[in-house]
Amino acid sequence: MRQIWIPRPGLPEVLEIRETELPEPKPHEMRIKVEAAGVNFADISGRLGIYQDLPPMPVVVGYEVGGCIDKVGENVDPEWLGKDVLGLTRFGGYSESICVGQQQVFQRPVGMTAFEGAALPVNYLTAYQLVCVMGGIRAGETVLVHSAGGGVGIAAIQLAKHRGAKVIGTASTGKHEYLTQIGVDHCIDYRKEDFEKKVMEITGGAGVELVLDAVGGKSFKKSYRSLAATGRLGMFGISSAAVGKSRNRIAFFKMVANLPWFKFTPIELINHNKGVFGVNLGRLWGELDRVESWMEDLLELYREGHIKPRVDATFEFSETAEAHHYIQDRKNIGKVLLVP
Question: Are residues 166 and 226 in the same domain?
């Protein structure tokens, strides 16, 4: 069986294919024959050596896969054999086969491809937590989605529009046409425009009810200032620390220095009627009952046609470095997948 390993921090070219034994499912586990594996920014942060939850290197990353069940362990209903599924993986997803706990596996709805299955878990669970669970967006409210052309961004847009919200999205100009097609009401080119100023112009100085920000650093400050009264800032990443294709300590410490360490104080939040929260799906492995219920909601939304993952590009295992380059070059509109 082949896997993609990160042997040490570095450029995408450090990624390497290794042969290993086919895994055997333990009790309450199922083995998925992987047809597609999702690539996420956490994987890239891990390769750069700046992802705090990464196990010691060498390591196989990957949080999600789509495929079919080819073996089950003890205490698992054999009816699962042969079923088309999607699965959440705690690392190890860059593999031809992987064993995961039964609670992390979901049967794919009729019509959902393995590619869509691999594109759904991380992006849509993150967006669901941001928009629906903690962000509590409602009809008529406005949400500002940073990195709107990425996987989480597109998922958040679909969920927000389903709830009747207005959406402002930041993305490079080349992505604006697609974002407009899927319902974004106003697009901002973050490379050329001050998003805080544009948000205030668009909202007549009122601000927005929800901001989704995975950029970090000074972006958190500007996003907070873009909130209306009763507005909420959802923080779910620090992509501004990942500058360049190899570890950049200067960029990391610059991002840390620009964090709003003394801005979100209790008195500040009370006096301005604002809320700030964080989301890290990778820290919810002890809350699988909760995550499972969110996934069931998402699969029902898929069946009803309200959400649909957009697969932008697929790469073979031998092209994993190119997949990482593709994301870091900000080329993707939607999900990037690896195909064994």
Answer: yes
Clarify whether residues 128 and 274 are in a common domain: yes
Q: What is the dihedral of CA 181, 187, 159, 242, to 10 degrees?
A: 120
Kindly list the distances between the CA atom of residue 178 and the CA atoms of 174, 182, 183, 309, 312, in Å, as whole numbers in the listed order.
Answer: 9, 7, 9, 14, 12
On whether both 114 and 127 belong to a single domain, the answer is: no
Place of tokens 């196989």: 60
Same structural domain for residues 31 and 129?
A: no
User: Which residues contact residue 282 at a Cβ distance below 8 angstroms, ignoring those fewer than 6 apart?
Assistant: 42, 53, 63, 90
Helices and strands, number each (H, E), in the chain: 11, 15
Q: Which two tokens stand for residue 106?
A: 């979901």
At what angle are helices 288-303 and 121-128 packed, to 10 degrees? 100
The CATH number covering residue 76 comes to: 3.90.180.10
- Of 133, 70, 74, residue with least CA distance to 96: 70
Residues 155 and 261 in one domain: yes
Residues 6+ apart with CB under 8 A from 214: 41, 146, 147, 152, 235, 236, 237, 238, 239
64-107 residue pLDDT tens: 999 999 999 999 999 999 999 999 999 999 999 999 999 999 99
Q: From its phi and psi, is residue 5 left (phi > 0), alpha (psi between -120 and 50) or beta?
A: beta
What pLDDT shows up at residue 63?
97
d(CA 125, CA 156): 10
Inter-axis angle of helices 218-225 and 195-202, nearest 10: 10
The structure's pTM equals 0.95
Q: Are 72 and 40 in contact (CB under 8 A)?
A: no
Q: Strand pairing partners for 183?
A: none
Give the domain range for residue 73. Answer: 2-120+309-339
Q: How many structural domains is the chain composed of?
A: 2
d(CA 148, CA 1): 36
